[in-house]
Amino acid sequence: MKVAIYSRGLDEEIEQHIKILMQELALQGAASVIYAPLVTESLAHNLQSFDYTIFSDASGLDDSVQCLISLGGDG
Question: What is the chain written as a DSSP string?
């Protein structure tokens, strides 16, 4: 399974949620694709032990992505 992770903004709280989500996806054997603007130096440092790729826009997501998780929002 391949899962894309997206969020419009990045703050410390979202960064922690991404790390927890990546841990769970790894436990389930899922591959991760993260929205490029989220991969700051700090987040990349926290995700060193995970295997993931990066996408910049919808064209970077192919048919192998089975799920997209969007973090944050207006409720």
Answer: -EEEEE-S---HHHHHHHHHHHHHHHHTT-EEEEEGGG--HHHHHHTTTS-EEEESSGGG--TTEEEEEE-----
pLDDT exceeds 70 at position 75: no
d(CA 43, CA 64): 24
**73 Ramachandran zone, left/alpha/beta (phi>0; psi -120 to 50):** left
Provide mean pLDDT across the span 3-27: 87
pTM > 0.85? yes
Task: In whole angstroms, give the CA distance from residue 28 to residue 31.
Answer: 9
End-to-end alpha-carbon separation of the chain, Å? 27
